[in-house]
Amino acid sequence: MNRTVRRIALMLGVAFAALIVQLTYVQVVEAERFAEHPANRRLLVKEYSIERGSIVAGETILARSKLTNDNLKYLREYPGKDLWGHITGYYSIVFGGAGLERTYNDFLIGAGPEDRWKNIVDEVLGRDRKGHTLLLTIDPKLQALAAKALGKQTGSVAAINPENGEVLALYSNPSVDPNPLSSHDLAGVRTAWDKFNASPAKPLVFRATQERYPPGSTFKVIMTAAALEAGFPKTKTYPNPRVLDLPLTDNTLRNFSGGACPGGGRISMAQALRVSCNTTFAQIGMELGPEKIEEMTRGFGFGAPPVGSDLPAVSSCLVAEPGGGCAEPTLDDPQTAFSSIGQFSVRVTPLQMALVAAAASNGGMLVRPHVVREIQDFTGKVVHTVSPEPDGPIFSRQTADTLRDLMIDVVDNGTGRPAAIPSLRGEMGGKTGTAQTGVEGENPHVWFIAFGPGIAVAVVVENGGDAGGDATGGRVAGPIARALIEAVQEK
Questions:
Q1: 400-408 long-range CB contacts below 8 Å, 24 or more apart?
Q2: Pairing state between β 372-376 and 382-385
Q3: Which DSSP string do the residues of 286-323 spell out, in sequence order?
Q4: Which one of the listed residues 54, 156, 172, 217 is annotated catalytic?
Q5: pLDDT digit string, tens, across residues 263-304
Q6: Which of 43, 95, 265, 336 is least enclosed by beta carbons within 10 angstroms?
Q7: Rounded distance, CA 180 to CA 30, Å?
Q8: Residue 234 belongs to a domain with what CATH number?
Q9: Overall domain count for the chain
Q10: E strands, 343-411, where?
Q11: Strands 133-136 and 237-239
Q12: Average pLDDT over the chain, rounded to an integer
C-alpha cells in the first residue's frame, strides 16, 4: 500500500514539475513568438494597459500616452500631427503599428530583452509597467524648415550627418496626421484609414524612404565615382555631339538643352559634371559597362534597404523591378547609356541619395542612417544606445578627394549655382538632376543633392513642383537644400 502511494506521489510530482517547466517555457522562452503572432489581438489590447513610452526630438514631444476612462487604458497622442507623422508612424488598435511605433514597439512597451525578468516580477506583484522613451537624432527646427521650404509641393527632403549617419530631418509632402488612426473610436479609425488609402496623393507612403524615383543627373555622381575608380582621369575628353547616336538602335540620346554642351568639340569628364552633359556620361557609361556601374552602385548601398535604417525603407536599384526588387544588370549599350544619366530603370529613394552625397563628402564612408539616438527608461536611465559604425571606404582616397572637388565645382561654377552659399564657397558641393518620369505628358521630377559642413541632403520635387515644365533641379530643389545647409551653419 505504501509503495503504491509513493508511486502515485512520485508520478504527481513529475507531472507538476513538467507543468511548471512547460509554463515557464511558454511564458519566458516562447513569449516573444506568441506576442508577435498576427492572430493574437488580445495581446495588443493588453498593451493598452501599459503606459507606452514617449517619442521625443530635442525637447519636443512627438508621441505620448494619455490616461483614459475607457476599457483601453491609454490613448496614443501625436502633438506634432503631420509634421512628424511618417516618422512616429501610428499605434492603432485596428491596424497595429507603423514607423518608429512599430520598429521600437518592444522598447516602447518596456518589453526589451533586458526587461523580461523584471516584467515577470512586476506582473506577479501586480505592478504597472511603463515603457521606455525614444530620443531622436532629428532637429525639430530643421524638420520644420524642411516642411516650410517644400511647402505644398509634392516631394521629399532627407538630411543626415555625413559623419555618423544621424538623421537631421526627414520629411515628405503630403504627410499624414496619425491621431485619427490612434483613436479608440474604431469606426472613426476605419473611416480615416479608408480616406487615406483612397487618396491618389498616397499620404500613408513615406516618400523619403518608401518611394523610388528616377534620379536623373544626380546619378552622375555615382558614374563619376565609378569612372575615377576605374582609372579614368577627370581630364579625359569625349566627343561633344548635339545628339548622340546609340549602337544597336535607331534611338538617340540628347542633352537637356537640346544642343551640344558648353565646352567645345570635345568635353572632359570634369566639365561634363559641371554642366551636367548627358551625351558625355552616356559615352562614359558605355565604356565602363553595366558590371562596373552596378559594382559602384552596390558600394553606395544600392540593392538593399539602407543598412541601419530604423524606418521602413525600400531598395534603390540600378535595374528596378516592379514590386520593389532589383534585377541583375543585363543591359545592352543603349540601356546602359540611358541608365548612366539616371534614366531607364534606375530608381532611388531620397534617403539613399542623401547617403550618396554623404559618401562623396566624407572620404567614401557609407554611414548607416538612424533616427533614434538612445532609449531611456522612465527613470531616465539609458537602456540602449544607437551608434552604428559606418562601412567603407567604398573607393580610394584619390577618388574621394577628386569626387568631392568636382561636386564643389558644380556648386561654385556649374548647374548648382542657384543653391550656392557664398560663405561656403569651396566647402559646399552638390549635383542637380532632372528626371523624366516615363509617363507621357508628365513634367519631370527635379532633384538636388548636396553636402556642407555637418550635413548631407537630398531633395526631390515631383513633376517640377510649382515651376512645372520650366523647373530645373538648381532652381526648384536647390534652394530647399540650401536652406537646410545654411541653418546647420547657424547653429
A1: 400/360, 400/363, 400/364, 402/228, 402/234, 403/221, 403/224, 403/225, 403/228, 403/360, 404/360, 404/361, 404/429, 406/224, 406/234, 406/270, 406/273, 406/274, 407/221, 407/273, 407/360, 407/361, 407/431, 407/451
A2: antiparallel
A3: HHH-HHHHHHHHHHTTTTSSPTT-SS-----BSSB-TT
A4: 217
A5: 889 999 999 999 999 999 999 999 999 999 999 999 999 999
A6: 265
A7: 34
A8: 3.40.710.10
A9: 2
A10: 372-376, 382-385
A11: unpaired
A12: 91
In a domain, 31, yes or no: yes
Cα 485-220-162 angle, rounded to 5 deg: 35
Residues facing 173 on adjacent strands:
155
pLDDT at 128: 73
In the predicted model, is pLDDT for residue 38 greater than 90?
no
Q: H or E segment at 432?
A: strand 429-435
Q: Is 199 a catalytic residue?
A: no
Are 459 and 488 in contact, with CB atoms under 8 Å apart?
A: no
Q: E strands within 68-105?
A: 74-77, 91-92, 96-97
- Domain assignment of residue 219, yes or no: yes
Chain centroid to Cα 98, Å, comes to: 14
Q: Is 294 inside any structural domain?
A: yes
Residue among 117, 122, 95, 104 nearest 52 (CA): 104
Give 234-258 as a DSSP string: TT-EEE--SEEEPTTSS-EEE-TTS
Residue 9 structural domain? 2-36
Please say whether the beta carbons of 54 and 61 come within 8 A: yes
> Do the strands 167-173 and 155-160 form a parallel or antiparallel pair, or are they unpaired?
antiparallel
Residue pLDDT, tens place only, 228-257: 999 999 999 999 999 999 999 989 999 998
- Give the mean model confidence (pLDDT) for residues 187-210: 97
The pLDDT tens digits for 382-412 are 999 999 999 989 999 999 999 999 999 999 9
The pLDDT confidence band at residue 3, using thresholds 50, 70 and 90, is low
- Closest alpha carbon to 218 in 479, 474, 470: 474
Q: For residue 35, name the pLDDT band (cuts at 50, 70, 90).
A: very low
